[in-house]
């Protein structure tokens, strides 16, 4: 098997960047090819395409194969060596920045959990190859492209690194699903979404989602979404006096201003116009 090695660096570098991909590369290693023991001053993520090898930290050794990823953290003493019979081919990307540590923690990586088994259908090798190709092109826009591909990479890795230990089994899944629903509504309330669309997007039956959501929050998804929209509209009525009631309604995803006014009075006990007048007088005093 012929040994290969290539690497491409980001043509743009910014001081004090919140997140920055430094370089990306690929290599078909020879048998028993070893790197380290050594430390790095940046994050370095590897993804194995073919073959096998071992990744060693100060705590333990991981035997890895195709689809496995391992993340080296700054200041961590590590070494890694390819297999004798089936030396690995891998891709990698190095990144740094003030937000890098938070990002890898959100993905689920830690010094105690540096490995993610993403499988042979993973898009990570393609994403890392995309970073390398982008850097070879030498365009300044490659900096932004590389960040998108890095987020894609860590996003997929996080699917394999989710911590299910806080809640056992079914309860854990229910809590995560309810959180997904709340996040969906909180980010999409300004659009004319429906609960049916949300259920379809999350891949669950509406009756099931409605039941677990009400058990967890005390409100049905329909009521929760409507209350969220009314709460947002109250803020707009207070802070944006130049907006009409129709514009406020549209801004919270309710295109029927009459329906909005009825629901606003149902939750707040007064019309949007009256609410705005009262809050304006209070602010004047």
UniProtKB/TrEMBL annotation:
It comes from the Bacteria. Residues 179-278 form the HTH araC/xylS-type domain. GO terms for molecular function: DNA-binding transcription factor activity; sequence-specific DNA binding. Coiled coil: none annotated. SMART domains: HTH_ARAC. Keywords: Activator, DNA-binding, Transcription, Transcription regulation. InterPro entries: AraC-bd, AraC_XylS_family_regulators, Homeodomain-like_sf, HTH-like, HTH_AraC, HTH_AraC-typ_CS. This is AraC family transcriptional regulator.
């Amino acid at each position: 098997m012929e040994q290969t090695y290539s690497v491409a660096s980001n043509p743009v570098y910014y001081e004090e960047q919140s997140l920055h991909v430094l370089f990306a590369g690929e290599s078909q290693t020879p048998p028993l090819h070893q790197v380290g023991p050594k430390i790095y001053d940046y994050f370095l993520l590897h993804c194995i395409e073919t073959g096998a090898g071992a990744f060693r930290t100060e705590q333990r050794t991981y035997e890895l194969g195709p689809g496995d990823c391992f993340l080296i953290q700054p200041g961590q003493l590590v070494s890694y060596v390819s297999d004798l019979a089936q030396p690995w081919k891998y891709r990698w990307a190095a990144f740094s920045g003030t937000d890098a540590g938070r990002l890898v923690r959100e993905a689920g990586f830690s010094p105690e959990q540096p490995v993610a088994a993403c499988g042979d259908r993973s898009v990570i090798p393609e994403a890392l190859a995309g970073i390398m190709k982008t850097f070879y092109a030498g365009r300044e826009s490659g900096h932004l492209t590389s960040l998108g591909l890095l987020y894609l990479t860590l996003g997929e890795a996080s699917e394999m690194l989710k911590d299910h230990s806080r809640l056992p089994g079914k309860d854990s899944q229910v809590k995560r699903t309810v959180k997904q629903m709340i996040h969906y509504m909180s980010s999409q309330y300004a659009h004319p979404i429906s609960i049916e669309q949300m259920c379809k997007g999350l891949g669950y039956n509406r009756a099931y989602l409605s039941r677990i959501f009400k058990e967890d929050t005390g409100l049905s998804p329909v009521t929760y979404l409507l209350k969220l929209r009314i709460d947002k509209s109250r803020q707009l009525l207070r802070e944006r006096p130049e907006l009409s009631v129709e514009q406020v309604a549209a801004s919270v995803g309710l295109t029927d201003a009459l329906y909005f006014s009825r629901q606003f009075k149902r939750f707040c006990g007064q019309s949007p116009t009256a609410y705005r007048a009262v809050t304006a007088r209070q602010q004047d005093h």
